[in-house]
Amino acid sequence: MKDCKATALDGQEVYLKGPEIETLRGKLRGRLITAEDPDYDETRRVFNALIDRRPALIIQPGNTADVVRAVDLACEKGLLLTVRGGGHSVAGHAVADGAVMVDFSALKAMDVDPEARTVRAWPGVRLGEFDARTQDFGLATTLGTVSDTGISGLTLGGGIGWLMRKYGLACDNLLAAEVVTADGQVRRASDTENPDLFWAIRGAGHNFGVVTELTYRLHPVGPMVFGGLILYPLSQARQILRAYRDYAVGMPDEFNAFAACLTSPEGVPVVGIGVCHCGPVDEGRRLAEPLGRFMRPLMDMTGPMPYVQVQRMIDDAAPFGARHYWKSSVIGDLSDGAIDVLAELCGRFSSPRSIVLIQPLGGAVSRVGPEATAFAHRSGFLVSIIGMWLEGPADEHKSWVREVYRGLAPFSTGGAYVNDEADSGEGAARTAYGPNYERLARLKAKYDPDNLFRVNLNIRPWA
Ligand SMILES: Cc1cc2nc3c(=O)[nH]c(=O)nc-3n(C[C@H](O)[C@H](O)[C@H](O)COP(=O)(O)OP(=O)(O)OC[C@H]3O[C@@H](n4cnc5c(N)ncnc54)[C@H](O)[C@@H]3O)c2cc1C
ipTM of this predicted complex? Predict the structure, then answer.
Protein backbone atom coordinates (compact mmCIF):
# COMPACT_ATOMS: atom_id res chain seq x y z
CA MET A 1 0.00 0.00 0.00
CA LYS A 2 1.42 3.40 -1.04
CA ASP A 3 1.63 6.42 1.26
CA CYS A 4 -1.45 8.56 1.02
CA LYS A 5 -1.79 12.35 0.90
CA ALA A 6 -4.36 13.75 3.33
CA THR A 7 -5.57 17.20 4.37
CA ALA A 8 -5.00 18.52 7.88
CA LEU A 9 -7.53 20.68 9.72
CA ASP A 10 -5.40 23.74 8.95
CA GLY A 11 -5.44 22.90 5.24
CA GLN A 12 -1.82 21.65 5.11
CA GLU A 13 -0.90 18.42 3.34
CA VAL A 14 -0.07 15.43 5.56
CA TYR A 15 1.21 12.02 4.47
CA LEU A 16 -0.18 8.82 5.94
CA LYS A 17 2.30 5.96 5.68
CA GLY A 18 1.24 2.85 3.78
CA PRO A 19 2.01 0.49 6.71
CA GLU A 20 -0.05 2.55 9.18
CA ILE A 21 -3.00 2.48 6.78
CA GLU A 22 -2.62 -1.30 6.57
CA THR A 23 -2.54 -1.55 10.37
CA LEU A 24 -5.76 0.46 10.59
CA ARG A 25 -7.35 -1.71 7.90
CA GLY A 26 -6.51 -4.80 9.94
CA LYS A 27 -8.26 -3.42 13.02
CA LEU A 28 -11.54 -2.56 11.32
CA ARG A 29 -14.62 -4.77 11.30
CA GLY A 30 -15.76 -2.82 8.22
CA ARG A 31 -13.83 -1.67 5.13
CA LEU A 32 -11.12 0.86 4.41
CA ILE A 33 -11.11 2.16 0.83
CA THR A 34 -8.38 4.25 -0.79
CA ALA A 35 -7.79 5.58 -4.31
CA GLU A 36 -6.11 2.22 -5.06
CA ASP A 37 -9.42 0.36 -4.69
CA PRO A 38 -11.64 -0.24 -7.74
CA ASP A 39 -14.79 1.08 -6.02
CA TYR A 40 -13.13 4.29 -4.73
CA ASP A 41 -14.69 6.53 -7.39
CA GLU A 42 -18.15 5.07 -6.96
CA THR A 43 -17.95 5.34 -3.17
CA ARG A 44 -16.87 9.00 -3.11
CA ARG A 45 -19.71 10.07 -5.45
CA VAL A 46 -22.48 12.12 -3.87
CA PHE A 47 -25.91 13.23 -5.02
CA ASN A 48 -24.88 16.64 -6.37
CA ALA A 49 -22.81 16.11 -9.53
CA LEU A 50 -21.12 19.50 -9.05
CA ILE A 51 -19.21 17.92 -6.16
CA ASP A 52 -16.13 15.95 -7.22
CA ARG A 53 -13.87 15.54 -4.19
CA ARG A 54 -11.24 12.94 -3.38
CA PRO A 55 -11.03 11.82 0.24
CA ALA A 56 -7.76 10.29 1.44
CA LEU A 57 -9.41 7.36 3.22
CA ILE A 58 -12.97 6.10 3.18
CA ILE A 59 -13.90 4.08 6.25
CA GLN A 60 -17.08 2.07 5.96
CA PRO A 61 -17.63 1.15 9.60
CA GLY A 62 -18.86 -2.29 10.58
CA ASN A 63 -19.69 -1.14 14.10
CA THR A 64 -19.36 1.80 16.49
CA ALA A 65 -15.78 0.83 17.40
CA ASP A 66 -14.77 1.44 13.77
CA VAL A 67 -16.23 4.95 14.00
CA VAL A 68 -14.23 5.57 17.18
CA ARG A 69 -11.07 4.48 15.30
CA ALA A 70 -11.83 6.93 12.50
CA VAL A 71 -12.42 9.79 14.95
CA ASP A 72 -9.26 8.89 16.92
CA LEU A 73 -7.18 8.84 13.73
CA ALA A 74 -8.52 12.24 12.64
CA CYS A 75 -7.87 13.68 16.12
CA GLU A 76 -4.37 12.25 16.56
CA LYS A 77 -3.21 13.43 13.14
CA GLY A 78 -5.34 16.58 13.03
CA LEU A 79 -7.06 15.45 9.82
CA LEU A 80 -10.18 16.72 8.12
CA LEU A 81 -13.10 14.36 8.84
CA THR A 82 -16.40 14.04 7.00
CA VAL A 83 -19.46 11.86 7.56
CA ARG A 84 -21.67 10.46 4.85
CA GLY A 85 -25.19 9.25 5.58
CA GLY A 86 -27.10 9.17 2.29
CA GLY A 87 -24.81 11.64 0.47
CA HIS A 88 -27.67 14.03 -0.39
CA SER A 89 -26.25 17.23 1.06
CA VAL A 90 -26.35 19.65 -1.88
CA ALA A 91 -23.41 21.46 -0.33
CA GLY A 92 -21.47 18.18 -0.61
CA HIS A 93 -20.71 18.06 3.10
CA ALA A 94 -20.33 14.29 3.06
CA VAL A 95 -17.00 14.47 1.26
CA ALA A 96 -13.88 16.67 1.19
CA ASP A 97 -10.53 16.54 -0.59
CA GLY A 98 -7.94 14.69 1.48
CA ALA A 99 -10.36 13.93 4.32
CA VAL A 100 -11.05 10.80 6.31
CA MET A 101 -14.61 10.01 5.26
CA VAL A 102 -16.83 7.86 7.46
CA ASP A 103 -19.25 6.34 4.97
CA PHE A 104 -22.36 4.74 6.43
CA SER A 105 -23.83 3.56 3.14
CA ALA A 106 -23.35 -0.11 4.02
CA LEU A 107 -24.84 0.12 7.54
CA LYS A 108 -28.57 -0.28 7.13
CA ALA A 109 -29.86 -2.37 10.04
CA MET A 110 -33.24 -1.50 11.56
CA ASP A 111 -34.98 -2.90 14.60
CA VAL A 112 -38.71 -2.10 14.84
CA ASP A 113 -40.52 -2.59 18.16
CA PRO A 114 -44.18 -2.59 17.09
CA GLU A 115 -45.44 -2.75 20.69
CA ALA A 116 -43.49 0.26 21.87
CA ARG A 117 -43.88 1.92 18.43
CA THR A 118 -40.20 2.71 18.16
CA VAL A 119 -37.41 1.87 15.75
CA ARG A 120 -33.64 1.83 16.12
CA ALA A 121 -31.87 2.50 12.84
CA TRP A 122 -28.29 2.67 11.64
CA PRO A 123 -27.36 5.88 9.83
CA GLY A 124 -26.97 4.30 6.38
CA VAL A 125 -30.71 3.69 6.03
CA ARG A 126 -32.45 5.63 3.21
CA LEU A 127 -35.96 7.03 3.58
CA GLY A 128 -37.49 4.46 1.23
CA GLU A 129 -35.92 1.59 3.17
CA PHE A 130 -37.07 3.05 6.48
CA ASP A 131 -40.66 3.52 5.28
CA ALA A 132 -40.86 0.06 3.72
CA ARG A 133 -39.73 -1.59 6.97
CA THR A 134 -41.93 0.41 9.36
CA GLN A 135 -44.96 0.10 7.06
CA ASP A 136 -44.72 -3.69 7.48
CA PHE A 137 -46.18 -2.86 10.91
CA GLY A 138 -48.52 -0.07 9.70
CA LEU A 139 -46.20 2.49 11.30
CA ALA A 140 -44.23 5.52 10.09
CA THR A 141 -42.63 8.72 11.27
CA THR A 142 -41.94 12.04 9.58
CA LEU A 143 -39.19 11.83 6.97
CA GLY A 144 -38.56 13.71 3.72
CA THR A 145 -40.24 13.33 0.36
CA VAL A 146 -37.53 11.78 -1.86
CA SER A 147 -36.96 8.13 -1.00
CA ASP A 148 -33.21 7.97 -1.72
CA THR A 149 -32.32 10.65 0.89
CA GLY A 150 -30.42 9.46 3.97
CA ILE A 151 -32.25 9.39 7.31
CA SER A 152 -29.29 10.66 9.31
CA GLY A 153 -28.36 13.92 7.58
CA LEU A 154 -32.06 14.70 7.15
CA THR A 155 -33.00 14.06 10.79
CA LEU A 156 -29.96 15.79 12.30
CA GLY A 157 -30.82 18.98 10.37
CA GLY A 158 -34.56 18.85 11.20
CA GLY A 159 -36.46 16.70 8.71
CA ILE A 160 -39.39 18.25 6.82
CA GLY A 161 -42.00 15.88 5.40
CA TRP A 162 -45.61 14.93 4.77
CA LEU A 163 -46.37 13.86 8.35
CA MET A 164 -44.84 16.86 10.11
CA ARG A 165 -48.01 18.86 10.71
CA LYS A 166 -49.48 15.89 12.59
CA TYR A 167 -46.38 14.38 14.21
CA GLY A 168 -43.67 17.08 14.12
CA LEU A 169 -40.35 17.13 12.31
CA ALA A 170 -38.17 14.03 11.97
CA CYS A 171 -35.95 15.42 14.75
CA ASP A 172 -39.00 15.89 17.00
CA ASN A 173 -39.54 12.13 16.73
CA LEU A 174 -35.97 11.29 17.67
CA LEU A 175 -36.06 9.64 21.10
CA ALA A 176 -32.36 8.91 21.50
CA ALA A 177 -29.11 8.66 19.59
CA GLU A 178 -25.66 7.18 20.03
CA VAL A 179 -22.98 9.75 19.23
CA VAL A 180 -19.21 9.44 18.91
CA THR A 181 -17.99 12.87 19.95
CA ALA A 182 -14.70 14.55 19.01
CA ASP A 183 -12.92 13.10 22.08
CA GLY A 184 -13.65 9.58 20.80
CA GLN A 185 -16.23 8.90 23.55
CA VAL A 186 -19.41 7.00 22.73
CA ARG A 187 -22.27 8.93 24.33
CA ARG A 188 -26.00 8.39 24.54
CA ALA A 189 -28.11 11.46 23.88
CA SER A 190 -31.74 11.60 25.01
CA ASP A 191 -33.96 13.61 27.34
CA THR A 192 -32.22 11.96 30.30
CA GLU A 193 -28.67 11.29 29.00
CA ASN A 194 -26.53 14.25 27.91
CA PRO A 195 -29.70 16.33 27.34
CA ASP A 196 -27.68 19.33 26.09
CA LEU A 197 -26.15 17.18 23.35
CA PHE A 198 -29.60 15.80 22.57
CA TRP A 199 -30.92 19.35 22.25
CA ALA A 200 -28.09 20.25 19.85
CA ILE A 201 -28.35 17.24 17.55
CA ARG A 202 -32.03 17.94 16.86
CA GLY A 203 -31.41 20.58 14.20
CA ALA A 204 -27.64 21.10 14.29
CA GLY A 205 -26.51 17.48 14.60
CA HIS A 206 -23.98 17.59 11.75
CA ASN A 207 -21.76 19.74 14.01
CA PHE A 208 -21.55 17.60 17.15
CA GLY A 209 -20.20 14.16 16.38
CA VAL A 210 -20.79 11.02 14.38
CA VAL A 211 -24.24 9.63 15.10
CA THR A 212 -24.06 5.86 14.98
CA GLU A 213 -27.62 4.95 15.91
CA LEU A 214 -30.97 6.78 15.87
CA THR A 215 -34.10 5.75 17.80
CA TYR A 216 -37.40 7.18 16.56
CA ARG A 217 -40.98 7.28 17.78
CA LEU A 218 -43.41 5.73 15.26
CA HIS A 219 -47.09 6.37 14.60
CA PRO A 220 -49.89 4.40 12.95
CA VAL A 221 -50.04 5.57 9.31
CA GLY A 222 -51.73 3.95 6.28
CA PRO A 223 -50.87 1.62 4.71
CA MET A 224 -53.36 3.39 2.38
CA VAL A 225 -53.57 7.17 2.49
CA PHE A 226 -55.07 9.81 0.22
CA GLY A 227 -52.33 11.54 -1.76
CA GLY A 228 -51.06 12.66 -5.13
CA LEU A 229 -50.46 15.70 -7.31
CA ILE A 230 -52.64 18.28 -9.01
CA LEU A 231 -51.13 20.36 -11.82
CA TYR A 232 -52.16 23.87 -12.88
CA PRO A 233 -50.57 26.10 -15.54
CA LEU A 234 -47.72 28.24 -14.21
CA SER A 235 -49.15 31.14 -16.21
CA GLN A 236 -51.91 31.25 -13.56
CA ALA A 237 -49.44 31.08 -10.65
CA ARG A 238 -50.76 34.20 -8.90
CA GLN A 239 -54.33 32.93 -8.74
CA ILE A 240 -53.34 29.37 -7.82
CA LEU A 241 -50.85 30.31 -5.12
CA ARG A 242 -53.32 32.74 -3.50
CA ALA A 243 -56.01 30.06 -3.43
CA TYR A 244 -53.46 27.56 -2.09
CA ARG A 245 -52.42 29.98 0.68
CA ASP A 246 -56.03 30.59 1.71
CA TYR A 247 -56.61 26.85 1.82
CA ALA A 248 -53.35 26.00 3.63
CA VAL A 249 -54.00 28.25 6.65
CA GLY A 250 -57.11 26.20 7.52
CA MET A 251 -55.73 22.69 6.92
CA PRO A 252 -56.16 20.17 9.75
CA ASP A 253 -52.93 18.63 11.04
CA GLU A 254 -53.57 15.28 9.32
CA PHE A 255 -53.57 17.00 5.94
CA ASN A 256 -50.48 18.41 4.28
CA ALA A 257 -50.24 20.13 0.91
CA PHE A 258 -47.22 21.75 -0.69
CA ALA A 259 -47.14 24.01 -3.73
CA ALA A 260 -44.31 23.83 -6.25
CA CYS A 261 -43.45 25.85 -9.34
CA LEU A 262 -41.70 23.55 -11.79
CA THR A 263 -41.67 22.19 -15.33
CA SER A 264 -43.54 18.94 -15.96
CA PRO A 265 -41.74 15.99 -17.62
CA GLU A 266 -43.61 16.97 -20.81
CA GLY A 267 -41.95 20.40 -20.67
CA VAL A 268 -45.01 22.34 -19.45
CA PRO A 269 -44.40 24.99 -16.74
CA VAL A 270 -46.81 24.17 -13.90
CA VAL A 271 -47.80 24.87 -10.34
CA GLY A 272 -48.04 21.47 -8.67
CA ILE A 273 -50.05 20.96 -5.50
CA GLY A 274 -48.83 17.85 -3.68
CA VAL A 275 -51.14 16.26 -1.15
CA CYS A 276 -50.95 13.68 1.63
CA HIS A 277 -53.60 12.97 4.25
CA CYS A 278 -52.48 10.57 6.98
CA GLY A 279 -55.99 9.94 8.39
CA PRO A 280 -58.90 7.97 6.86
CA VAL A 281 -58.81 7.89 3.04
CA ASP A 282 -62.37 9.20 2.55
CA GLU A 283 -61.69 12.13 4.82
CA GLY A 284 -58.55 12.89 2.78
CA ARG A 285 -60.56 12.80 -0.44
CA ARG A 286 -63.07 15.25 1.02
CA LEU A 287 -60.35 17.59 2.28
CA ALA A 288 -58.42 17.51 -1.01
CA GLU A 289 -61.44 18.29 -3.17
CA PRO A 290 -61.19 22.12 -3.05
CA LEU A 291 -57.53 21.91 -4.13
CA GLY A 292 -58.63 20.47 -7.48
CA ARG A 293 -61.16 23.25 -8.04
CA PHE A 294 -59.01 26.41 -7.95
CA MET A 295 -59.62 26.43 -11.71
CA ARG A 296 -59.66 23.65 -14.28
CA PRO A 297 -56.46 21.65 -13.52
CA LEU A 298 -54.19 20.38 -16.27
CA MET A 299 -54.11 17.08 -14.44
CA ASP A 300 -55.41 15.65 -11.16
CA MET A 301 -53.45 12.58 -10.05
CA THR A 302 -54.79 12.35 -6.51
CA GLY A 303 -56.41 9.26 -5.07
CA PRO A 304 -56.01 6.50 -2.49
CA MET A 305 -52.49 5.08 -2.61
CA PRO A 306 -50.02 3.29 -0.34
CA TYR A 307 -48.14 5.65 1.97
CA VAL A 308 -44.85 4.31 0.57
CA GLN A 309 -45.98 5.42 -2.89
CA VAL A 310 -46.67 8.96 -1.68
CA GLN A 311 -43.15 8.91 -0.25
CA ARG A 312 -41.77 8.17 -3.73
CA MET A 313 -44.06 10.22 -5.92
CA ILE A 314 -41.60 13.04 -6.61
CA ASP A 315 -38.46 10.86 -6.82
CA ASP A 316 -38.17 11.31 -10.58
CA ALA A 317 -37.98 15.08 -10.21
CA ALA A 318 -34.59 14.75 -8.46
CA PRO A 319 -32.41 12.11 -10.15
CA PHE A 320 -29.01 11.17 -8.71
CA GLY A 321 -26.23 12.83 -10.70
CA ALA A 322 -27.87 16.14 -11.65
CA ARG A 323 -26.16 19.42 -10.67
CA HIS A 324 -27.59 21.44 -7.80
CA TYR A 325 -27.44 24.80 -6.08
CA TRP A 326 -30.08 25.47 -3.40
CA LYS A 327 -31.08 28.14 -0.94
CA SER A 328 -34.13 28.50 1.26
CA SER A 329 -36.07 31.14 3.07
CA VAL A 330 -38.71 30.93 5.77
CA ILE A 331 -41.47 33.44 5.10
CA GLY A 332 -44.03 34.31 7.75
CA ASP A 333 -46.93 34.49 5.37
CA LEU A 334 -47.44 33.66 1.71
CA SER A 335 -48.44 37.27 1.08
CA ASP A 336 -49.56 38.67 -2.27
CA GLY A 337 -46.17 40.38 -2.50
CA ALA A 338 -44.27 37.11 -2.01
CA ILE A 339 -46.53 35.40 -4.54
CA ASP A 340 -45.85 38.16 -7.09
CA VAL A 341 -42.09 37.60 -6.67
CA LEU A 342 -42.45 33.83 -7.11
CA ALA A 343 -44.78 34.12 -10.11
CA GLU A 344 -42.44 36.56 -11.82
CA LEU A 345 -39.16 34.70 -11.19
CA CYS A 346 -40.52 31.19 -11.76
CA GLY A 347 -41.65 32.45 -15.15
CA ARG A 348 -37.96 32.55 -16.08
CA PHE A 349 -36.38 29.47 -14.57
CA SER A 350 -32.71 29.13 -15.53
CA SER A 351 -33.32 25.42 -16.14
CA PRO A 352 -36.41 23.28 -16.75
CA ARG A 353 -35.21 21.06 -13.86
CA SER A 354 -35.36 23.84 -11.27
CA ILE A 355 -38.13 23.94 -8.68
CA VAL A 356 -39.45 26.35 -6.08
CA LEU A 357 -41.10 24.33 -3.32
CA ILE A 358 -43.40 25.97 -0.76
CA GLN A 359 -44.18 23.94 2.36
CA PRO A 360 -46.41 25.06 5.22
CA LEU A 361 -44.88 24.56 8.66
CA GLY A 362 -47.27 25.04 11.56
CA GLY A 363 -49.35 22.26 13.14
CA ALA A 364 -47.26 20.02 15.39
CA VAL A 365 -44.06 21.65 14.07
CA SER A 366 -44.96 24.99 15.64
CA ARG A 367 -46.28 23.48 18.86
CA VAL A 368 -42.63 22.84 19.73
CA GLY A 369 -40.96 26.10 20.77
CA PRO A 370 -38.19 27.63 18.62
CA GLU A 371 -35.68 27.13 21.42
CA ALA A 372 -36.90 23.70 22.59
CA THR A 373 -34.55 22.01 20.11
CA ALA A 374 -31.76 23.40 17.93
CA PHE A 375 -34.24 23.63 15.02
CA ALA A 376 -35.61 27.16 15.37
CA HIS A 377 -37.76 28.10 12.37
CA ARG A 378 -41.08 26.42 13.04
CA SER A 379 -43.85 28.59 11.65
CA GLY A 380 -44.82 30.19 8.36
CA PHE A 381 -43.81 28.65 5.03
CA LEU A 382 -40.49 27.13 4.05
CA VAL A 383 -39.59 28.12 0.49
CA SER A 384 -36.86 25.90 -0.97
CA ILE A 385 -35.25 27.38 -4.08
CA ILE A 386 -33.86 24.41 -5.96
CA GLY A 387 -31.53 25.19 -8.83
CA MET A 388 -31.06 21.94 -10.75
CA TRP A 389 -29.55 21.33 -14.19
CA LEU A 390 -27.96 18.43 -16.00
CA GLU A 391 -24.87 19.89 -17.67
CA GLY A 392 -22.79 23.01 -17.98
CA PRO A 393 -21.51 25.65 -15.59
CA ALA A 394 -23.27 26.80 -12.47
CA ASP A 395 -23.17 30.61 -12.77
CA GLU A 396 -26.50 31.23 -14.50
CA HIS A 397 -28.34 28.83 -12.19
CA LYS A 398 -26.76 30.23 -9.04
CA SER A 399 -27.70 33.74 -10.16
CA TRP A 400 -31.33 32.69 -10.64
CA VAL A 401 -31.49 31.00 -7.20
CA ARG A 402 -29.96 34.07 -5.56
CA GLU A 403 -32.35 36.37 -7.39
CA VAL A 404 -35.35 34.44 -6.02
CA TYR A 405 -33.74 34.43 -2.56
CA ARG A 406 -33.19 38.19 -2.67
CA GLY A 407 -36.69 38.74 -4.02
CA LEU A 408 -38.14 36.92 -1.01
CA ALA A 409 -35.95 38.77 1.49
CA PRO A 410 -38.57 41.45 2.34
CA PHE A 411 -41.00 38.67 3.32
CA SER A 412 -38.54 36.45 5.18
CA THR A 413 -38.58 35.88 8.93
CA GLY A 414 -34.78 35.87 8.60
CA GLY A 415 -34.66 32.08 8.81
CA ALA A 416 -33.57 29.30 6.46
CA TYR A 417 -33.32 25.51 6.54
CA VAL A 418 -29.85 24.11 7.24
CA ASN A 419 -30.46 21.06 5.03
CA ASP A 420 -31.36 23.20 2.01
CA GLU A 421 -28.31 25.46 2.15
CA ALA A 422 -25.60 25.09 -0.49
CA ASP A 423 -23.54 28.03 0.77
CA SER A 424 -21.27 28.03 3.79
CA GLY A 425 -19.94 30.70 6.13
CA GLU A 426 -20.97 32.21 9.42
CA GLY A 427 -23.73 34.35 7.88
CA ALA A 428 -25.48 31.31 6.41
CA ALA A 429 -25.05 29.43 9.71
CA ARG A 430 -26.53 32.26 11.78
CA THR A 431 -29.50 32.44 9.41
CA ALA A 432 -30.12 28.71 9.65
CA TYR A 433 -29.67 28.30 13.41
CA GLY A 434 -31.30 31.65 14.20
CA PRO A 435 -31.83 32.42 17.90
CA ASN A 436 -30.09 29.16 18.88
CA TYR A 437 -26.73 30.02 17.32
CA GLU A 438 -25.01 31.26 20.47
CA ARG A 439 -26.16 28.39 22.67
CA LEU A 440 -24.97 26.03 19.94
CA ALA A 441 -21.58 27.78 19.82
CA ARG A 442 -21.20 27.23 23.59
CA LEU A 443 -22.10 23.55 23.25
CA LYS A 444 -19.72 23.26 20.32
CA ALA A 445 -16.96 24.53 22.62
CA LYS A 446 -17.94 21.83 25.14
CA TYR A 447 -18.23 18.86 22.76
CA ASP A 448 -15.96 19.82 19.84
CA PRO A 449 -13.59 22.58 21.01
CA ASP A 450 -11.15 22.08 18.10
CA ASN A 451 -13.96 22.07 15.54
CA LEU A 452 -13.15 18.59 14.26
CA PHE A 453 -16.65 18.40 12.74
CA ARG A 454 -16.30 21.38 10.44
CA VAL A 455 -17.43 20.10 7.05
CA ASN A 456 -21.04 21.21 7.54
CA LEU A 457 -22.89 24.49 7.98
CA ASN A 458 -20.36 25.19 10.64
CA ILE A 459 -20.84 26.57 14.13
CA ARG A 460 -17.57 28.00 15.43
CA PRO A 461 -16.83 26.94 19.04
CA TRP A 462 -17.48 29.83 21.43
CA ALA A 463 -14.11 31.44 22.13
C1 LIG B 1 -33.46 15.29 -3.75
C2 LIG B 1 -33.49 15.80 -2.34
C3 LIG B 1 -34.69 15.84 -1.66
C4 LIG B 1 -34.73 16.30 -0.35
N5 LIG B 1 -35.93 16.32 0.31
C6 LIG B 1 -35.97 16.72 1.60
C7 LIG B 1 -37.18 16.68 2.34
O8 LIG B 1 -38.22 16.29 1.83
N9 LIG B 1 -37.15 17.07 3.63
C10 LIG B 1 -36.00 17.50 4.23
O11 LIG B 1 -36.04 17.83 5.40
N12 LIG B 1 -34.85 17.57 3.55
C13 LIG B 1 -34.81 17.19 2.26
N14 LIG B 1 -33.64 17.24 1.57
C15 LIG B 1 -32.45 17.79 2.23
C16 LIG B 1 -31.80 16.70 3.05
O17 LIG B 1 -32.38 16.70 4.32
C18 LIG B 1 -30.31 16.97 3.19
O19 LIG B 1 -29.72 16.91 1.92
C20 LIG B 1 -29.65 15.98 4.13
O21 LIG B 1 -28.39 16.48 4.43
C22 LIG B 1 -29.53 14.62 3.53
O23 LIG B 1 -28.97 13.72 4.42
P24 LIG B 1 -27.98 12.59 3.89
O25 LIG B 1 -27.64 11.72 5.03
O26 LIG B 1 -28.54 11.96 2.66
O27 LIG B 1 -26.79 13.51 3.42
P28 LIG B 1 -25.17 13.50 3.61
O29 LIG B 1 -24.68 14.30 2.46
O30 LIG B 1 -24.67 12.11 3.75
O31 LIG B 1 -25.00 14.26 4.94
C32 LIG B 1 -25.49 15.56 5.12
C33 LIG B 1 -24.88 16.17 6.37
O34 LIG B 1 -25.22 15.36 7.47
C35 LIG B 1 -24.04 14.90 8.12
N36 LIG B 1 -24.30 13.53 8.54
C37 LIG B 1 -24.85 12.54 7.81
N38 LIG B 1 -24.92 11.43 8.55
C39 LIG B 1 -24.41 11.73 9.76
C40 LIG B 1 -24.20 10.99 10.94
N41 LIG B 1 -24.55 9.72 11.02
N42 LIG B 1 -23.64 11.62 12.00
C43 LIG B 1 -23.29 12.93 11.94
N44 LIG B 1 -23.46 13.67 10.83
C45 LIG B 1 -24.01 13.07 9.75
C46 LIG B 1 -22.96 14.99 7.07
O47 LIG B 1 -21.70 15.10 7.62
C48 LIG B 1 -23.37 16.24 6.33
O49 LIG B 1 -22.92 17.39 7.00
C50 LIG B 1 -33.56 16.76 0.27
C51 LIG B 1 -32.35 16.74 -0.42
C52 LIG B 1 -32.31 16.26 -1.71
C53 LIG B 1 -31.01 16.28 -2.45
Answer: 0.99
